Amino acid sequence: MKALAALLEQWRKDGSPKTAGEIDALTEPTRLEGKTIAARQAEWDKRLKRYDPHDLPRMVDALLPFGRRSAEYRLPLLHAKGRDPRLAAALSSWVETRPNGFQGQATDGFWKVVLQVLDEIADVRQLARLEAVLKQVEAGIGCHADTLLKAGLPPLLGRLRVLAATVDSPVVIEKPDANALFAAVYADPDADAPRAVLADLLASAGDPRGEFINLQLRPGKPPRRVRELIAAHGVEWTGSLAPAVRKEGLEYARGFVRACRLGATVAALDLTKSVELATVEALSVSTGASLPAEAFALMRSLKELRGHVYSVLASPVPLTRLVELEFEGACDSARLVECRAFPALEALRVASLLHGADRLPLWKAPFASTLTSVWLGSVFGSLSEWRAWMQSSPAQVKKVSVGVVGTGVRLTMRRVAEENFSAEVLANSHGDSMTDEAQASVDAAVDAAANQLAGAGLESCARVELAFRPNTRGAGFPGTDLPPSPAALARLKERLPFVTLVPSAAEW
Questions:
Q1: How is the chain split into domains, by residue range?
Q2: How far is Cα 371 from Cα 367, in angstroms, rounded to an integer?
Q3: For residues 64 and 94, is the Cβ–Cβ distance under 8 A?
Q4: Per CATH, domain 406-508 is 3.40.1560
């Protein structure tokens, strides 16, 4: 304790960054004891009364979890124990990140206290860090940037600049390390401050990535130069993902990859070390490719996942931001309905299930309470069992759609004010559309679909709409947009009087 107290006393006299560094070296991170906020607050107050400078790290780390009002009250009490460069470093980190719960007009008083304490501590080591924050604020980057302007950030920086030129020991502001800044971006993808500092560092070294990050951090419509830089360096800047990244679908945001599609060559990569995945919000994986489940632990920002992505069912961590998930091919529904990897999922698409509704207890899955949309490509069973399955979905589910194999029908339920169903009939025509044979094949598809729909139990639904979709199979099959004949439509209306015919996507 004597060594730390002596160093603090020396630093309060000379403000030397070297002395501050020695103080940091004697500091070990610790936490306050107590299982509840109230217990930790009592422990905090007790330590304040018998203050030991070794306790400062644990006391300052506890302030934000205490809440804004408590932190605003206790911070000056802690600062009153003496100027301490470690407290300045912690407060600069707060200013840099502006944590959740400490943004908006209601926090103006809190930030005024924070900057006032920083001003009184006068640690010149924080100058570069706070300069980067001011640059973001002036560019309009970040939430509630005007709060820091009103709280007094520019005057604080002015005084620190003057002090930096007058301290006895020359102030050496360590040049940021690019690798460390990249790591900081991947560790906290939401923060703009590390990106801004990295951009300046790269730009000063003549690296076009620095210009690119700065351009994307600016508010407003991106200039043409952004597109030029992506065209020239986009794949290269994906780092370890580059061998598998496809140019189509590659998107950047705030200087880093936001969306990408990985090809089959991804199988040759060790994605468990691909830190670049941390900023990816939308990821598609091509058929034939595969991802190791461990790679999902790196995907802190992931919101949309599509393609050959079945390994997500074994993700070692919950993907708390994932809201859209689409599986290509047949899906293992038993593993799907037990998976806890996507607790916030809203939209689910599955290309194929090799069984009926009785083997898909989706509405009991851990993520069922957040689902709003479900789309199933090809399923087995009858229209009636899938209709009942749809109607058993939780109330927040607004749309469910299934394509039932062997029926030629895609059945969709939409919840608006009431449950509405729509059925889309796939009308196949064979041969030239001008022949009687082609017309007969279309009419046969309509008759078969009517038979299926008659037994689906849709009569009691508020509204049932029916449309016909031509089976477009390419230029080699002319006439695939042939509509049902009037006779076929009359038979359908007689069989299904409760159905309302609506135009399909293709106008006949």
A1: 2-174, 406-508
A2: 7
A3: yes
A4: yes
